[in-house]
Design goal:
about 650 residues; mainly alpha; 27 helices; about 70% helix; about 0% strand; disordered N terminus
């Protein structure tokens, strides 16, 4: 997941009791000042412009800030000098008055609820897929066939993707009538581009499969998988055709102030795939001889296309005017449009960056085609590993983003360094117990979620081993996102691009060594990802230290690592012992009907006890990171209580 996609959830802030602490290259300030400094008394205007998604997020009125209002205007006016019933002097049609803060918070809560519902349905989709196709040939073929459609619908045309962000940003700056014209032009343009790409994909599907998954043609047994992969890719070409138009629709809805539909819209694909799996199982129950495993891939691929088509239909029904004549598009004048030029100048670099991120995934899939079942197993394990990391990233990184932006001046680098040291320590304190507990309980978690029907015990052991390999790099993943936020705040995106390109090359080399030289298989591919993430953190740290003229002091963090590792060991021991004890007790006192419920209770309680032991040992040692964590939790709870009060009074 990218940083711009996480920024859309909002920004929090924390108080700081020491506005001007003296800097020392030691860990003393971590003990004296338990809070992250987030708002200096003097806020000089930064000499840079952050990247577009960051500017949009920080400036969004939906973050809870009231728009500024001129004292001479009535309350219904918005500070542009024209009232809600007038037109602005530049000919723009004035937007509706701002929503009250209660409405903003209610809207934000709805968006958050829709996002959570979409994520839950995504997990349910993976559980259903695991039950229907497991990690066998059909699952392998589907994961290789879905590379291009998934990239089109999720990374390019998905929510918070480059098309969504750039279209929403551009449309929000235009008058309402101009928005409609530009939106229609971009819809037509994206449908035309999508049609060309979809036709080429359909015609050259076999060549694309051979290029992206060469391991599927090394043996006669894999020829069947290759044919299934080619058929499924052809069935998912509607995803490629409509992806760009769907992204434009998301941007149009966001510019009009509707964020609930884009947040829940990805769930349409999950619902369609789940429905296709259920339909396949029902029809297979009627005639087992005709509905074999290869037919399951056809049902699932068709479900993915139906989900994308449903998203497009819902968008069209929302903003289309049935009785209003559509604007005719003159393609000869299309590229002469200034708004089109502005939009494409933002869109093309954003698509390039998304493409670089996707290359790393393509590299893993390329080499996984030589390992039986690796593509499906890596997919399940990666989703489980990223589930807690996405939540933790929002909790840790979002509150400190405004602080990094306001501390970008060289005169403020001492405070930036102190904030960064405390944020790194906070990342370690939060992610290490989660990582340790998940590693210990990886086997039971995978078995409870996925092990049924086609997903047997051997598949559970396989996916659990991959999950552990991914989880090893989870603390580095969070810290990498933190460093990326600092570089964006300093206005330096070139360093991030350089590190991303280097990481892609290194990932390819490690994947090759893992599969062809060391014979490490799928576990080697997952470990390569974790090692590359650790390398990215080290490289970003060195570049940041050089940029800040050595202001970052790693020794202030390093002295606490032995204590953190010892607490991790204690946490893992307690979690393992608790799980075995609870499972033995609950299994002996529950019937077979409630065995999964007993397993879920054992895992939950063991994980809770394991993480509690980690924090308990740190509390006994008066660990400074616990004070920082306590300040963050207090701020989060205050905001949650405030939102609850607003909902009660609405």
């Amino acid at each position: 997941m990218s940083l711009s996609s996480k920024l859309s959830h909002g920004v929090a802030s924390l108080p700081h009791p020491h506005p001007h602490p003296h800097h020392h290259h030691s860990n003393a300030h971590l003990l004296r000042s338990p809070h992250l400094y987030l708002r200096p008394q003097t806020s000089p205007k930064p000499s840079f412009r952050p990247p577009l998604p960051l500017r949009n997020t920080l400036a969004s009125p939906r973050l809870g800030r009231r728009p500024r209002r001129s004292p001479s205007l009535p309350r219904d006016s918005v500070g542009g000098g024209c009232s809600s019933e007038q037109s602005c002097g530049d000919g723009r049609e004035h937007d509706p008055p701002p929503i009250p803060s209660n409405g903003l918070l209610r809207c934000a809560t709805l968006v958050g609820s829709a996002t959570v519902a979409s994520k839950i349905l995504g997990l349910v989709r993976e559980i259903v897929l695991a039950a229907v196709i497991g990690v066998g040939p059909v699952a392998t073929a589907f994961n290789h066939a879905a590379v291009l459609p998934r990239f089109s619908t999720s990374f390019l045309g998905g929510v918070n993707g480059p098309i969504h962000i750039t279209v929403a940003t551009t449309l929000s700056k235009l008058p309402k009538e101009n928005r409609k014209v530009l939106s229609e032009k971009m819809h037509a343009f994206m449908l035309l581009i999508g049609a060309v790409l979809a036709v080429l994909t359909y015609i050259y599907s076999e060549d694309l499969v051979s290029f992206s998954a060469p391991g599927l043609q090394v043996s006669p047994e894999n020829n069947l998988m290759k044919e299934m992969c080619k058929t499924q890719l052809k069935l998912m070409t509607p995803c490629i055709f409509l992806a760009g138009s769907v992204g434009v629709g998301f941007g149009h809805l966001t510019a009009e102030g509707d964020n609930v539909i884009p947040s829940f819209s990805p769930a349409m694909t999950s619902i369609a795939i789940i429905a296709s799996c259920i339909l396949y199982m029902l029809m297979r129950g009627l005639d087992v001889s005709r509905f074999n495993g290869s037919l399951a891939g056809i049902f699932i691929s068709s479900g993915a296309s139906v989900g994308t088509i449903l998203q497009w239909i819902i968008q069209v029904s929302l903003y289309a005017k049935p009785k209003k004549k559509a604007n005719f598009i003159w393609w000869k004048d299309f590229f002469k449009d200034k708004d089109i030029h502005n939009l494409l100048s933002l869109l093309l670099p954003a698509i390039l960056n998304s493409g670089l991120v996707q290359i790393a995934s393509l590299t893993d899939l390329y080499f996984s085609s030589f390992v039986p079942g690796a593509a499906a197993g890596l997919s399940y394990a990666f989703i489980l590993a990223m589930a807690p990391l996405g939540i933790l990233s929002s909790i840790i990184i979002l509150p400190v983003l405004p602080a990094f932006s306001t501390l970008a001046e060289p005169s403020m680098w001492v405070r930036l360094q102190e904030n960064l040291e405390k944020a790194i320590l906070l990342c370690l304190v939060i992610t290490m117990p989660v990582t340790c507990t998940f590693c210990v309980l990886a086997g039971p978690i995978v078995s409870m979620l996925f092990q049924r029907r086609m997903f047997d015990s051997s598949a559970s052991l396989f996916v659990a081993s991959l999950l552990r390999c991914y989880l090893i790099g989870s603390p580095f993943w969070i810290i990498r996102e933190l460093f990326a936020a600092v570089f964006y705040s300093l206005g330096d995106s070139k360093s991030l691009l350089l590190i991303n390109v280097t990481a892609i090359v290194l990932n390819g080399i490690l994947d090759w060594l893992s599969v062809t030289v060391l014979g490490a298989g799928a576990q080697g591919l997952a470990l390569s990802t974790s090692c590359v993430t650790a390398f990215s953190v080290l490289a970003l740290f060195l570049l940041l230290s050089k940029k800040l003229k050595g202001a970052v002091n790693v020794r202030a963090i390093g002295v606490f690592l032995p204590q953190l590792l010892a607490s991790c060991a204690a946490s893992g021991f307690v979690a393992s012992l608790s799980y075995r004890t609870l499972r033995s007790f609950l299994s002996a006192n529950t019937t077979a009907r409630f065995c999964r419920l007993a397993e879920a209770a054992s895992i939950s309680l063991a994980g809770l006890l394991g993480m509690s032991s980690f924090y308990f040992s740190l509390l006994l040692a008066d660990f400074p990171g616990m004070q920082i964590l306590n300040g963050l939790l207090k701020t989060v709870m205050k905001r949650l209580n405030f939102v609850n009060d607003v909902w009660t009074n609405v």
